[in-house]
Design a protein that fits this description.
Elements: H1 2-24, H2 31-35, E1 40-46, E2 50-52, E3 61-77, E4 83-93, H3 95-98, E5 113-121, E6 128-136, E7 143-146, E8 157-160, E9 169-172, E10 181-187, E11 194-201, E12 219-227, E13 235-242, E14 257-263, E15 268-275, E16 282-283, E17 286-287, E18 301-309, E19 317-328
Parallel strand pairs: 2-6
Antiparallel strand pairs: 1-3, 3-4, 3-5, 5-6, 7-19, 8-11, 9-10, 10-19, 11-18, 12-15, 12-19, 13-14, 13-18, 16-17
Length: 334
Amino acid sequence: MKNYLLVFFVGSILLTACRKDEVDQFDGPSLTDIYGDFNIFTPFAVSAPTVDFGAGETVHFTAEFSKSVDWEIKVTGQTSGAIKIISGFGSTIDMSSSNWIGDITEFPIFQVEICDVELSFLNEPDVFTEQVEITSPKTNDGFLVADFESGFLSGWSTFVQSGANMDFQIKSDNFSPEQSSYFNMAGEVDWDYLIGYVYFNASAYGAPHYPLSNNPDNEYFNFMLYGEPGLNNSIMLFQFTEDDNNDGNHNGTNEDMYSLEMLVDWEGWRLVSAKYSDIPCLVNGQPAAPNGNGVHDPDKITSINMLHLANPVTGFAQSKLDYMIFTQNGPLKP
């Protein structure tokens, strides 16, 4: 009889312990999150009415709900049309989940402007709105090659073929992804791949070489490129000429030139970023051995040659270029 009582006593302890663990370890959403009413405990708000992103300020959003939900905050610039989307899941929105540094989710880039802010939910009809004013947009650290806001620099070299419907010029209109200006490239040349080019010579910035570090793994080349709807025949070629012997010039027979080439087969603005050490040497579009020391030396770049190309049998080609900038330790985050 004693043995039966002992077994029953031990079993009762183990059963009690198991039930306690099951209560403490609950998997899945709570019944409140599934069936509970949705209410706002703390109204949707912006941490400040204005924000100076250029000075390093940030802004965040706050709200508290009666249950955990999928939420989304959409910021839209009234002037630029720029969009920033912040999303998450939970019953609280605070600085840790919604801090905004002035960057974008969709082009263009934010300007000095008033922004409409909308909070919505995946499975709830409620929508809440606020506004925040940007007094200075986000700035990007790095060396700016061109944003075309001040026209053509005197040290740049340019050439345009005598083709049909040629249009190589700086324009200022609603297409600009950053501030107000960009470089438009368009035309039809039926005897040559080359439509036109701009050489961004280092001498235009007051030195024989670009002011970059000597570490090709830390230097990133970035630019914004627009693909025209209905056209997918533009080819963009960027050539980086180096001065391996430091005589102030590039000699193509015995010094390196690295090339970044792409077919513009998309529509709208796209950010393109490339680590300098990853940019290959190309000859007629094919990988080849460089003619110099074979070492990527960003601090020895004498020129960035931008060529707009198209297969002559494909007819009219058009694209747009803006905001060429070198950034360090990572690609551009506009």
